[in-house]
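Read as amino acids, tokens; as here:

___
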Amino acid sequence: MQGLTEILILPLIGAVTIGIFKSVVPRRLAGIWASVLVLASFGLAVAADMHLGGLAPGHREISVTLFNWVTGFGPPIAWNLYLDPLSGIWLLIITGVGGLIHVYANGYMADDSDQGRFFGYFNLFIFSMLLLVLAGNLLILLIGWGLVGLASYLLIGFWYRRPSAVRAAKKALVMNTVGDVGMLIGLALLYVRYHAVTYSALFRAFSHATPGAPFFVWVAVLFYIGAMAKSAQFPLSGWLVDAMEGPTPVSALIHAATMVTAGVYLVARLYPLLRLAPGVAYAVAAIGTFTAIYAASAAFFQQDIKKVLAYSTLSQLGYMFLGVGVGAYTAGVFHFMTHAFFKACLFLAAGSVIHALGGEQDLSQMGGLYKKMPWTMLSFLAATLAISGIPPFAGFYSKEAILGQAFNSGHDLLWIVGVVTAGMTSFYMFRLFFLTFFGSPKNPQLYAHAHEAPAVMTVPVMALGVLSVIGGFFGPWLNRWLAPAFAAYPGAPHAALETGPIGGTLLAVGLAVVALVVAYALYIRRETPARAGIDSWPGRWMLAAYGLDTGWRYVAVVPWMAAGTWVRRQMDRGILIAVVAVANGIWLWAEDLRPIQSGYVRRYALSIMVGLAVVLAYSLVKA
């Protein structure tokens, strides 16, 4: 099916053409062109998934081989594209939600003088993500993985005149490179052992392997390091919050629909490998659960509207990893889908607020905006209810599926932490909602100039708000679509969506409702200031994310800088000694040769004659 090639190529065409012609065409044309190409890819993706759905449930896969790429090292490695139910879901979200974000960005970036460069990077990012999910083998996936890291570096540091943006971009690139190295080593180990990189060949080999073998444990750990870095799992999570330095559409694209969910895709794609390393699978679930509650607590006292949403992304990614770690693959992917809806809505609505307030992101400067921005407020409310897990909004169904299957699998501790985190999520998200849209305006001057965003921004936000309401009802379709694919491999007992005990569901929803009421009492009834509590020691710790960045500095930066400085000094000292020794030797040699250079022409003539005589004598003897 050649449509796969077009889905991939269209955003690349946009990136190339915008890069070439951005300086000679009207700047707004770049955004329109980029958006049209991504939306066209979405249309083709819908057609491809419909074609895939028409195949028999056990044979839903399409492979397109373009050419043999690597030859001469065993079986050739082809450059091939692969579509199955798993990649089909990511394809729809990347192009669909990504297309809405592109349309929104036309309004958000309207006054930026460098729109061409921005949309060129935007299309490059979409192409890279599509290459990652459509890759027919792990080598092509790794190329897409690296390109996603490059594109995110360019987008996070788009405003490169800001030192903070440059630092954030470098931090994201370095931390993601750690994961890239882990994946590269894992891929090399698999290739050396099996001489294959395609999913089908590797999965066939895995089906005959012994679970728990050290080889598979190490390979699973290496690939999980890649997933951990890309999806910002603790402790490789610090880059995600700093990535807020990029424009808000970048935050929505990276944190909602694409980059940070690449790790979830990788773990779900390699689920047969994870089944061979049950200890690693449990570590995936445990670290994901810890990341969820860690990030939720760090969001409590944040003052920046985008940082609250960044920490909420970390927390929701933790839920996804909890799902795939306990074997609830369909539930984890389901939460990826609903998260793409409500998190993109939240970021874009926050961008509209920032746009209306002239760039202000401090919650202590907001308040009362529901009167000025009613459509944005309603969309934000729908997404907040969804992320809080309150029925019947989208997040309730996917989060309940993950928690229910964690409970059914016997992971009681992980289930308890997940339920508590659900209540914490409701509190900090409604704190954000109330501080932004209700209460008295904290900055009358900013409030006076606030206004609803233009239609090009508001319509995508409202569309995502509607999806945040109805997205949970896609669960049965997703179950029919994905579960047979996961269940086809032995060791996937929880492939289909499951529900936990009704008491557990009521407890999770009850905690979310109680947290909502507490947030209402604090920030509406009492109008508690946004900065309340940050001067206490818990507030300071939470605001600083428990010193994670400081910890990394002393663990991974300071010691290596000290070691590098010592090595440099030793090398400099050794090189200096060698250079001085060579110089002294040349000087002594020159001193010995100096008497020959007398300056008398007759001596030079005599030397020449003697030399010629020696050469002539040698020639006669040889003859």
The longest helix spans residues 548-593.
